[in-house]
Write a structure and sequence with these properties.
The chain is of the alpha+beta class. The chain has a single domain, classed as Ribosome hibernation promotion factor-like (Double Stranded RNA Binding Domain). The chain has a four-stranded mixed β-sheet, with helices on one face. Strand 3 and strand 4 form a beta hairpin. Helix 1 runs parallel beside helix 2. The longest helix is centred in the middle third of the chain and has 27 residues. It starts with a strand and ends in a 6-residue tail after the last helix.
């Protein structure tokens, strides 16, 4: 997976790039189909803004953004939103594929093999008093 960090209206320190990259790479825990994450950091104005455009399998794209007083908080908030959207995408893919696996339709009904109370009493020998 490729993580690309860019800055808009400002420069980004190496520490901030490293922080965003480490956090973004953790998103692969939630879905293996992530191809590329592009993070755009904007430090202009009183509030810091972080955006992410995430390319996932099957050519789809997930976009999220967040604002906060500090850039670290904006990155954390943005990645939390990305995590939720990635989980939603994963559930959508699973539902489209038919869940966790094929349903077993030829399995015998477990109630068919159970004996009734009367059958158990009839075949059991009880000691005489």
């Amino acid at each position: 997976m490729v993580v690309k960090i860019t800055a808009r209206h400002d420069s980004v320190t190496d520490g901030m790039k490293r922080y965003a990259t480490e956090k973004a790479e953790k998103l692969t825990r939630f879905f293996n189909g992530l191809n590329k994450i592009e993070i755009i950091l904007d430090g202009q104005g009183p509030r810091q803004q972080a955006e992410a455009v995430i390319s996932v399998s099957h050519g789809e794209t997930i976009a999220v953004s967040a604002e906060a007083e500090k850039m670290n908080a904006a990155i954390d908030s943005m990645l939390a939103k990305a995590e939720r959207k990635i989980r939603d995408h994963k559930e959508k893919v699973r539902a489209h594929r038919g869940g966790d696996g094929p349903a077993i339709t030829d399995a015998p009904d477990p109630d068919d093999s159970l004996e009734t109370y009367g059958e158990v009493i009839d075949r059991t020998e009880f000691p005489s008093s």
